[in-house]
Amino acid sequence: MAKRRHRPNDSLHSAKSAKNDEFYTQLSDIENELRHYRNHFRGQVVFCNCDDPYKSNFFKYFALNFNFLDLKKLIATCYAGSPVASGELSLFDNERPKGKTVRSPHKIEISEVLENPASGSNPADVNYLLINEKNVLTRLKEDGDFRSPECIALMKQSDVVVTNPPFSLFREYVVQLDSLGRKFVIIGNKNAITYKEIFKRIKENSLWMGMTPMGTDMLFDVPENFAKELIKHKQEGSAYKIVDGVVKGRSQAVWFTNLDIPKRHEDLILHKKYTPEEYPKYDNYDAIEVSSVAKIPMDYDGVMGVPISFLDKYNPKQFEILGSNRGVDQDPNGVYGNGSYLNGKETFKRLFIRRINI
User: Minimal CA–CA distance to 209: which of 172, 168, 262?
Assistant: First the structure.
């Protein structure tokens, strides 16, 4: 289960205390998204750089599907301080001081997974995989931070990065991926869409939403102590849900990728016609308010403000993204980012778009 981890460095104290970094991705959510990328994984080196292989469902998914996806290699790295479950053993257990419940930083490199595992064996179990001498578990010299030179070197050896990075460091994580020219499929908070560093890449068509619809309810496994905090301080249904007696954290999480996927080539079918009465203009900007994606008019060639859920239907050959009302990509007159108002009241988050080839 990929952990949006606490950072081990003192300089990252704020990220270290961020509760959003303690969510673990469920295998079902990983399977539902990654089944659309099979052709992108064939013959590639996949790197999961925020994933303790003893816990991560990302590692488990790729280990179980190593041959089906025809991977060249699978690499996963574990940061210093990943918690160890009660009774759980690993290669580096003898390095832990007595009573210590965190793991040493390490990497695992999987080059071969046998087609027919021994009876009763789990083909995604680290200790089983290490029986094969072609697979190696090594202690890292540094702390496993994705920004460490050691982990950056591993990323440069990889073709596709797939993980659930720390939400609190999401901006920095994406900038690093971009600077190294990596392909990726990652999970982030929906609010990241209007981060300057992220929106810039969405507008430039170097990053987009994954196949899973943005409205899909994603639940995450959480540590027991955090589950207790959720029950004590948060509302069931909004911050968490109880599934079969187990507390699952709920987050506004979405998939981001720069791998080509089918939905980027599907035209949004429009059926509404523009009328000034149904589509009022903003008080402070020459654009019309479109309250839902289904209401985008087929015959309007000006600027429109639409909900961010539009990105689920975004085809860059059909629409142009101009900016947002949340402080990113301002136009020459400085209008973007000042909010969008109707009759003196500010609307929710909006993207400004325009149709292409009317």
Answer: 262
- Please report, as a single letter, which amino acid is at residue 341: Y
With a CB cutoff of 8 Å and minimum separation 6, the contacts of 307 are 291, 292, 293, 348, 349, 350, 351
2 burial level (CB within 10 Å; 0-12, 13-18, 19+): buried
348, two tokens: 């929710």
Handedness of CA 172, 317, 33, 258 (dihedral sign): negative
Give the whole-angstrom CA distance, residue 52 versus residue 106. 8
80: which residues sit within 8 A by CB, 6+ positions away? 8, 102, 103, 104, 105, 143, 144
Query: Are the CB atoms for 337 and 328 separated by under 8 Å?
Result: yes
- Distances in whole angstroms, Cα of residue 229 to Cα of each of 7, 54, 63, 86, 136: 21, 25, 33, 21, 38
Burial (CB count within 10 angstroms: exposed 0-12, middle 13-18, buried 19+), residue 327 = middle
How far apart CA 102 and CA 349 sit, in angstroms, is: 41
The two structure tokens encoding residue 130: 């290490």
Q: Is the pTM of this model over 0.70?
A: yes
DSSP state of 52: -
Spatial neighbors of 287 by CB under 8 A, at least 6 apart, are 281, 302, 303, 304, 305, 340, 352
- SS3 state of residue 262: helix
* Sole residue written with tokens 């052709």: 39
The secondary structure of residue 312, as a DSSP letter, is: G
CA-to-CA distance for 215 and 198, rounded, in angstroms?
19
- For 36-78, the pLDDT digits (tens) are 999 999 999 999 999 999 889 999 999 999 999 999 999 999 9
In tens, the pLDDT along 272-325 reads 999 999 999 998 888 999 999 999 999 999 999 999 999 999 999 999 999 888
